[in-house]
Structures are given as structure tokens and as C-alpha cells.
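Q: How would the C-alpha cells look for this protein?
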Amino acid sequence: MKYLSNYIEELGATVKLTHFTAGDVSEVHAILTIEPRGEMFDQQFTRIKAAEAQLMQLPEMKDAQPIFKRYFLSDATNQVPVIQKQSMLNRQSSMINDQCTVSYIQQPPLDGSKLALWIYLQRGTDVATTGCSTVVTHNDYRHIWTMGLTSTNADTSYMQSWETLFAYIDTLKHFDATIEANCLRTWFFVRDVDTQYNGLVKARRECFAEQGLTSETHYIASTGIGGTPADPKALIQLGAYAMTGFQPEQQRYLYAPTHLNRTSDYGVTFERGTLMQYGDRNHVYISGTASINNHGEVVHVGDIRRQTQRMWENVEKLLEEGGMTYDDIMQIIVYLRDGADYQLVNQMFNEKFPSIPYVVTLAPVCRPTWLVEMECVAVKDVKNEQFRNF
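A: Here is the predicted structure in C-alpha cell form.
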């Protein structure tokens, strides 16, 4: 694992990345942040794209191709049209453009800027984009990254969740895949999570049961978090990662029962974490994790410092169950309910994870008393002779 951090003074931009290679495939997670400098959005967007162009010139990025991007925005409804217009102009020039699946979500970066960017890239695989999905093929695996799914045909989060999930199920059919057998990771962004989350929970539970996902079978690693889609009519936005070509025994679910309970105990339907094993590496996907105990209770109500510490402890136990430590993390997303907690939480993360790329956004967690949540991706070089390389 190689961590790099580069401050580009003329752009007021910081690029932090993690680079991992095993076998003949490299993976990179990069998070780009910028200083606000009192500028309008289009100026900040131009600077972050220039920083991305410089990122792609680094030796570690040679022949790397973007798999997906997520823009964290302060005003998605107004800013996404600017990004899309600029992207069309970029296609006619030599500037880098978003030729992969992209997620735009209103979760304002709490450093005062109007946007931040997370990019996942690979080298050594075949990458193609079809519709709203990026499809990666290598070594008889097919990885399907799908972002930005919404539905505005209904006016409740319950019905929009149903429609969005079945749109995703239809997408998977094009790849001879199902949500039950092939989906490894989801993100549900919920407009006004305090009032709309219950509709998502009910629809997801019913849809999953219909598709064969129950507490007796398995669920899917997931983050369900406050986030505002660009379309003012959309209450729910879905992003997901699925894969075909793997053996069922390559996948294992993480529970950390000494610290966490099963989510089905309190009526929600996701796994705490998922381990995927390959011949040359293991991946761990940690779901959105907060300050909770193994009875499903919020721990340290009202205390942001102690909630952050308990959240770290929970994530650490999940990583341990997957055979990993914090040294194997490639990136972190931090969600805060109260922007006034940013300075303290950012300082705590910077001290504990000085090298790992992370971003802190304003995004309320699904229970009002949860003040902070985090998710992460980890990878480790291993030898699993019974499985094909990544």
C-alpha cells in the first residue's frame, strides 16, 4: 500500500491517494479537496478538474482508468447542470472528462468549499461504460459499478425506493446478474433522512424479501444516509456495486458480535461489512457505521468525541474479522449531522489517519441521536490459491 498527498498551491487543491498493486492489477482511491477562496462554483469546479488532470499525470496513474466518481456538492440542483455542461465542452477539448459512472450528491464538504471529489481507478483491467454503469472485466470476473439511479414517478420515499430498486434489478438482468447473488455494496442517499428514511427501510425490506434476501440468507453491505439528489423531485438515490464470475465461498459477511448486533434486530436490512477474497488480494467493504452497541443502542448520546471513538472501535472490530487493520484502509467517507462538529472531528481523523484519503461531509445519519458515521474500503495482499486473482 502506498499513500501519497500532494498540495497544488496554484490551484489551492489537495490530492490524497492510496495506490495498491497485487498480481497484474493496480487500484487507486483518490480524494480531491479544494480551498474555497471566495469563488463561485464554476471557478471551484475548474480548479478541481485541473487538479484531477495533474493527478492523472503522476507516475502511479500511468494507464489507470476511472471506474467511478462521486462529487460531494453543496447545492446539487444548481451545480450538476454546470458540471454536465462543462463535461460536454471537455469532450471537445483535451481536458479530462467523466467517462465513467458518476454519482452527484448534495452532501456539502465541511471545509467551506462547494465540492469535493472521490475517484476510484484501476490499471490492468478492461473498462467500458454502458448506460449508467461502468463494467470492468478481468480474469473471468465482471465488476458492475452503477451510480445515480433515481425515480420521480411517485411522491413517497416508499414508492420511489421500490421503483429505484427495480430499475437496478432490471439493470443487472442485462449482465445475467441478480441483486441476491451478485450485488456486493449499495449506497442509499435519502432527502430529509429524518422523515423519509422509514419509507426506504420498508420498501427495501419488502423488495429484498421478494428477491430472496432475508435474515436467514444474507443482505448487502450498505450505507443509508442523508443526501439530496440533484433532481428536486427525487427523494432517494441509489448507487451499487455488483460482480459476476465469483464462487459463493469467496464472499463472507462481517458481524463483530462483541460490538454490533444484526441489523435485522431493529428492522433494517444490510450487512455490517463484506469480505471478498481473490487469489491475490482481499477486499473489505465496511458499511456506514456509527456509535452503536451489540444491543442496537446508540452509545454516548450527545457526545461527538466519544461517538467518534466508539465508531472507530466498531470499524476496527469489523476489519479484524475480515483479517485486516486500519493500515489496510484505502479511503474513508465521514458523515456529520452537525456542521459545528467539523473542526473537532476533522482534527481527530487527521491525527488518527494522517495518510488515508478521507472527506468529511454534512450528511445526517438515519437516527437523529447518531452524530457521526463513517464507511471505508480496505484491501490486503494475500495468497488464496483456491481462487482466481482479481
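The chain has a mean pLDDT of 96.

The radius of gyration is 19 Å.

Upvote if useful.
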